[in-house]
């Protein structure tokens, strides 16, 4: 698989360029298929990108937005990716988008994963856009190093859907789309910022153990070309 690096002078320039590219991808999907789908990541890195994308003039009423992964916490928790997206993306013009969360109140996270798989079954075959992030430990989505469900999550032969993840570095239990659900996105991007993240990416490229640095699965086995967006 090929990966293309797009480097920018600063985070603001990256956010604007990524928003332009994603908007174009969503517009193309709407024109060609009538609807569009996008899966986005949480954390602090995407906030500027979300703010920029929310202002782009596309037919948001035909766009379904979901999360690449989520903590098993209610939507009003400050740790919730749902709250992050609601605050920074689902506003302005993008307020018209249809949001499909991954967290659902259920007796167990396993039952929540089943509900999330059912609720998202109508989108993402493949996703028009999937935006990944990466942690300093080399995790992406909720594919954490040595996570309890990592082998299953990274198995491209498994069905699409949402599964659970527990790992030492994850904090809360997680809900995450499988690699099979994200790998073939029509536009697959990795959004990272800072020299530290660039160094982690270089370390990932230099090795092959996916259980140690799961981002390697995306670098080496994703079905779609990976577009890497980086700024200092």
TrEMBL record:
Keywords: Hydrolase
Domain Glucosamine/galactosamine-6-phosphate isomerase: 10-221
Its EC number(s): 3.1.1.31
One Gene Ontology molecular-function label: 6-phosphogluconolactonase activity
Metabolic or biological pathway, per its Swiss-Prot or TrEMBL entry: Carbohydrate degradation; pentose phosphate pathway; D-ribulose 5-phosphate from D-glucose 6-phosphate (oxidative stage): step 2/3
Biological process annotations from GO: carbohydrate metabolic process; pentose-phosphate shunt
Enzyme class: hydrolase
Reactions the enzyme catalyzes: 6-phospho-D-glucono-1,5-lactone + H2O = 6-phospho-D-gluconate + H(+)
Pfam family membership, one: Glucosamine_iso
Record-linked PANTHER family: 6-PHOSPHOGLUCONOLACTONASE (PTHR11054:SF0)
Its job: Hydrolysis of 6-phosphogluconolactone to 6-phosphogluconate.
Family, similarity comment: Belongs to the glucosamine/galactosamine-6-phosphate isomerase family. 6-phosphogluconolactonase subfamily.
Protein name: 6-phosphogluconolactonase
